[in-house]
Amino acid sequence: MTVALATGTLRTLHRMHRQLEDLRGRLAAGPRRVNALKAAVQEAESRRDAAKEAVMQTRLAADRKQLQLKTAEAKLADLEAKLNACKSNKEYQLFRDQIAADRMAGKVLEDEILESLERIDGLKPAVPAAEEAIAAARRKLADEETRVAAEVTELEAEVARISGDVQATEQDLAEDLREKYQRAVRHKGADGMAVADGRDCGGCHQQITSNQLSELLGGRIVTCRSCGRLLYTPESATPA
């Protein structure tokens, strides 16, 4: 194999490995988008549940106050009956004072009950609004799941195709270079190769030696002493 052919082969392999990384990244991104939308559905459901809970708790509080009011009204009726049966002024005054206090407490309860009912009316609209948000989030999730399922089929087919091309192209490398290439790919994937950027490694940006530069300019492949990447020249610099 000529040095120019070896460089061209490595350049092609590097491009294909980058394509594979991009495809695999897109494959991984689909499920992440779906999971994010599932989380959005759960969040919307939590808001709905919180809205329902707020209405329920406020209604329970109002019911408890109404029960307290009924009990207070019954107690007040009993006190008024006792007031009419009083036999002394002192006893009469005591009952009157108690009745006045109980009526005041009852008025406070009535106001609190009214406030609770008004609060319930204010909280109720949040429930259907939350249900609408859940429905919208579920529709968005379903659409994304359909889209991702279609993408996965296409992307996996493309990964399989390019992976086959990689295996076929690898056979064009000389055995010693193939071993270096396979070691680099095994440890770093597509990042195990880099185009030389002038006098620098295109991966770690460290300067290469003069001897390595000469080899590169001669169309050979060298290993960066700083990061271990296989370096090759850009296509425009490949010798004829």
**Span of the ends, CA to CA:** 14 Å
Just name the CATH architecture of the largest domain: Orthogonal Bundle
- The DSSP helix count reads 5
State the low-pLDDT regions, or none.
Answer: none
Category by helix and strand content: mainly alpha
* Overall average residue pLDDT: 91
* Widest sheet, order of strands: 2-1-4-3
Helix share, percent: over 70%
The description of the largest β-sheet is: 4 strands, mixed
Radius of gyration: 40 Å
- Overall geometric form: rod-shaped
Question: What's the structural blueprint in terms of helices and strands?
Answer:
Layout: H1 3-84, H2 89-123, H3 126-170, H4 175-188, E1 193-197, E2 200-201, H5 210-217, E3 222-223, E4 230-232
Parallel strand pairs: 1-4
Antiparallel strand pairs: 1-2, 3-4
